[in-house]
Amino acid sequence: MDKIFFMIFATIGTQAPFDRFVKMLDELCEGTDEEVIVQTIKSEYTPKNVKCVDFLSPDVFAQYFSRARLVIAHAGMGTILSALKQDKPIIVVPRLASLKEHRNDHQMATAMRMDELGYVYVAYDKKQLKDLIMQKDLKPLKHIGEQASESLEKSLAEFIDK
Amino acid sequence: MNNKRIFAVASIGGHWVQLLRIASSLETTHDVAYMSTHEKCASMVEGHRFYQIKDFSRWDAYKVIPAFFSALNTVRKENPSVVITTGAAPGLIVLFAAFCLGKKTVWIDSIANVNHLSLCGRIAKKFASRFYTQWEELATDSVHFAGNVIG
Question: Hey, are the CB atoms on A78 and B18 less than 8 Å from each other?
Answer without folding.
Answer: yes
